[in-house]
Design a protein that fits this description.
EC number: 2.5.1.78
Number of helices: 6
Oligomer: single chain
Mean pLDDT: 90
CATH architecture: 3-Layer(aba) Sandwich
Function: Catalyzes the formation of 6,7-dimethyl-8-ribityllumazine by condensation of 5-amino-6-(D-ribitylamino)uracil with 3,4-dihydroxy-2-butanone 4-phosphate. This is the penultimate step in the biosynthesis of riboflavin.
Enzyme class: transferase
Number of domains: 1
Distance between the termini: 43 Å
CATH superfamily: Lumazine/riboflavin synthase
Pathway: Cofactor biosynthesis; riboflavin biosynthesis; riboflavin from 2-hydroxy-3-oxobutyl phosphate and 5-amino-6-(D-ribitylamino)uracil: step 1/2
Largest sheet: 4 strands, parallel
Low-confidence stretches: 162-167
CATH class: Alpha Beta
Helix content: 40-55%
Strand order of the largest sheet: 2-1-3-4
Order of helices and strands: EHEHEHEHHH
Family: Belongs to the DMRL synthase family.
Structural class: alpha/beta
């Protein structure tokens, strides 16, 4: 059962310059994805951001698409949306862990990413979390991306993330695992 516990939410940041967000969604569970997209779009609109949307086959492809867009396109931030429901095999653990890790590594490189990939036990949990009038996790992911964009602009003087980095994602993954080599 989904919790109704209230959580503190930061007010949306305001921006002096336009903000472009890319929503990357895996619509495997179409109704869940549509609710999350609606929530993300509404939050982006409330902050004055413009939004583009692309679909990818599954949650594992979301980090790859965001990484490609971070290098090849002109977005200020990214919203990752999808849903992984526990099944009978360990595939659930692989998809949850690897999609989250991919997004984290991209974020550590400087991309502003809101992670809205739901990891749930059943569809009832997903429905409550995806509902824009419920827990609105799509809106929460968009808000997270917007807050990170605001920080990036504050600390980077408006420079676009995604340029040359001290570490590439492969080297960073090795360092986080302790190998120090890539």
């Amino acid at each position: 059962m989904a919790s109704n516990t209230e959580h503190h939410q930061l007010d949306l940041p305001s921006f002096d310059a336009p903000v472009r967000l890319l929503i990357v969604v895996a619509p495997y569970y179409k109704a869940i994805a549509e609710g999350m997209i609606a929530g993300a779009r509404a939050t982006a609109e409330a902050a004055g951001a413009t939004v583009d949307l692309i679909e990818v086959p599954g949650a594992l492809e979301i980090p790859t698409a965001i990484g490609m867009a971070g290098r090849l396109a002109n977005y200020d931030g990214f919203v990752a949306l999808g849903c992984v429901v526990r099944g009978e095999t360990t595939h659930y653990d692989t998809v949850c862990n690897d999609s989250s890790r991919g997004l984290t590594l991209l974020g550590l490189q400087g991309l502003a990413i809101g992670n809205g990939i739901l990891t749930v036990e059943n569809m009832a949990q997903a429905e409550v979390r995806a509902d824009p009038n419920g827990q609105n996790k799509g809106g929460g992911a968009a808000a997270a991306a917007l807050h990170l964009i605001a920080l990036s602009r504050k600390w980077g003087g408006g420079a676009k993330p995604g340029g040359k980095r001290d570490h590439d994602v492969i080297r960073l993954a090795g360092e986080l695992e302790g190998s120090g080599r890539a």
